Amino acid sequence: MCLCVRAQRGLAIANIVVVCTLVHMTEDSKLLVERVQTGVRMEKRLLKILKAFAEYHDMTLGDLLEGIVLHAFDGKTPFSPASLERIQELKRFYDFDLDSGASHRLREIKARPVRKRTADK
Question: CA 63, CA 66: separation in Å to the nearest integer?
């Protein structure tokens, strides 16, 4: 979340000079899209980091993923230096040691069989 938005929402910003350009979006500049529900599987800690990062920026996980993918499709980085630092903090918090070199080597562990509880008689 940019510092302008944090300041407007009354969130604490200590000893920071905020210089912003506020760009208002008109209805003409918004794009109408059709979104669909999807069930994707991904590494558990990676999902936790993405969800925490989306929450930190007050956006949905879907909005975050759309932004990341659209930037990647254009060959651009989706993250500012400050966002990359926040991601590093979240990676440490969730003990996440994977990087892009692991992307084609991930294998899913076999699921443990679900034990059925027997009702006490």
Answer: 5
Amino acid code (one letter) for 17: V
Contact 2, 11 (CB under 8 A): no
pLDDT band at 117 (very low <50, low <70, confident <90, very high): confident
Classify burial at 76, counting beta carbons within 10 Å of its beta carbon; exposed 0-12, middle 13-18, buried 19 or more. Answer: exposed
Q: What is the DSSP letter of 15?
A: S
Query: Backbone phi, then psi, for 57, in 5-degree steps?
Result: -95, 10
76 close to 68: Cβ distance less than 8 angstroms: no
Residue 97 tokens, joined:
């040691």
Structure tokens at 101: 């070199």
In tens, the pLDDT along 73-88 reads 999 999 999 999 999 9
Q: Residues 6 or more apart from 86 whose CB is under 8 A from it? A: 53, 56
Tokens 């443990």 belong to which residue?
112
